[in-house]
Amino acid sequence: MDFTLIKSLKGFSPGLLCVIPLTSKDPYRISQDLCHKMGEPSIDAFLALIEQQRPLVESLCKIGTRIQHMFLNDMEFEFESRRISSLDKCTEEQLLSLLQPVSYLETNVYEPQDDWPQQTGWEEDWPVDPTLVPPDTPCDLCHATGDCGCLSSLPKNRHHIICYGGRGRGIQAHATYRGGLVFSKGEYIGELTGELKPLNWSRDCMAVDFRRPDIYDEPVVCQLYCKERSNWVRLVNHSCEPCAVLIANIVSGKARIMLRASRDIWDGTELTISYGSGFFKRDDCLCERCEARSKRAETTLRMPEVYRQSLRLRE
């Protein structure tokens, strides 16, 4: 890219360079090679054109900058979490909105509602955030009380969002070097965030029963709804041989649902948890173990009867 053109783009984000195609194709026939060959008159004409479309170009610049950041920090875009039948009918503004990054919740959202029923045996004031614990309750991670800062010390940039075929999107562990250890057994990986809702608010699979580990019998005090607003932890897939677990803990003055490694997790491993024995109907599970078992069963069915009998005798 010619330095003269880059210097002339003052007032626009460097992200604009990210949306210029590498090769010239229809319908625009613009490429980085073409821009490299532009002289002063062409650059002036180019700047005049983009000035006429400044709001659109500024939006493209932001998208280009996010694409650049995506290579360093994993990022989820709006189009990935929506069902879109066709892009042909989308307006320019709608297309730009689909390229916006998903806004993650840093912590759970509690919005008091008049119809939120009080919990049976609840001794605190009501209504109140049901995940808020007494100020003298120690953190399960560091044993300090109050806002201890443990959340800010959780691992960052150690995961990628990956498509796992029939299982959909999932989370892959990512080390700083190929084949390295990403999470040690017992290490906390992240917090599952969402909207706090009353008990039995939804039967959606994205609504998780929220237990209070500091109260006798660990009662369910609310639901954590993760469908509309949440974070990347909601994308962790199920496995019958999981490498992690979701567990209720007291962290930084609140009860939280934390993702914790149940064994050492290495680079390239899919982060998985168990959704519970009743989540899937028979033969509906698509985890690696069940898929391998299904393939073995199909192979056995195709074997001659005599060979299948010999296998049984060997067992």
From TrEMBL:
InterPro entries: SET_dom (IPR001214), SET_dom_sf (IPR046341). It holds the Pfam family SET. Gene3D superfamilies: SET domain (2.170.270.10). Residues 77-276 form the SET domain. Signal peptide: none annotated. This is SET domain-containing protein. It comes from Zopfia rhizophila CBS 207.26. The lineage of its organism: Eukaryota, Fungi, Dikarya, Ascomycota, Pezizomycotina.
